[in-house]
């Protein structure tokens, strides 16, 4: 079963927010490659919840994909930070997913520690120039991250 890493700014949605809510909508993906990964996800697939754009970026826990993808409503909301003026009800290429909480790690696994792990050298997250907010994680990479908890 495929596994993923998805980035969220904790000021918008943190692993602890998701823990409190139980489930939430994952929206705001505005890169076509990342959108394609969102589209290919299946219900029950797991992902690492990564805190980005914060003082200590890193993997904060695990969450699960629930349900099918659907048109991201934030793309058509002029009040949203993720508004895309090129979208309409009949032409919205952006997708959202519902996700549910699985586990919060006792401590965030910092990006520096992930970069220092040889088993993660091929993970797009640690490669220079890669800024995707959604990316696949291989079984070996998944196990390597779990060993860092």
TrEMBL record:
Residues 4-147 form the EVE domain. CDD domains: EVE. It holds the Pfam family EVE. InterPro entries: 5hmC_binding, EVE_domain, PUA-like_sf, THYN1-like_EVE. It comes from the Bacteria. SUPFAM superfamilies: PUA domain-like. Coiled coil: none annotated. This is Predicted RNA-binding protein, contains PUA-like domain. It comes from Pseudomonas pohangensis.
């Amino acid at each position: 079963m495929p596994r993923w890493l998805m980035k969220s700014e904790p000021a918008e949605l943190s692993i602890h927010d998701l823990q409190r809510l139980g489930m939430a909508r994952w929206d705001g993906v505005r890169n076509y490659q990342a959108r394609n990964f969102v589209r290919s996800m299946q219900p029950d697939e797991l992902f690492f919840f990564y805190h980005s754009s914060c003082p200590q970026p890193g993997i904060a826990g695990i969450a699960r994909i629930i349900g099918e993808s659907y048109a991201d409503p934030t793309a058509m909301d002029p009040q949203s930070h993720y508004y895309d003026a090129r979208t309409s009800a009949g032409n919205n290429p952006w997708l959202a997913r519902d996700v549910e909480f699985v586990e919060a790690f006792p401590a965030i696994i910092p990006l520096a520690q992930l970069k220092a792990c040889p088993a993660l050298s091929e993970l797009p997250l640690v490669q220079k120039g890669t800024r995707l907010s959604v990316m696949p994680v291989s079984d070996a990479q998944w196990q390597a991250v779990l060993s860092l908890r």
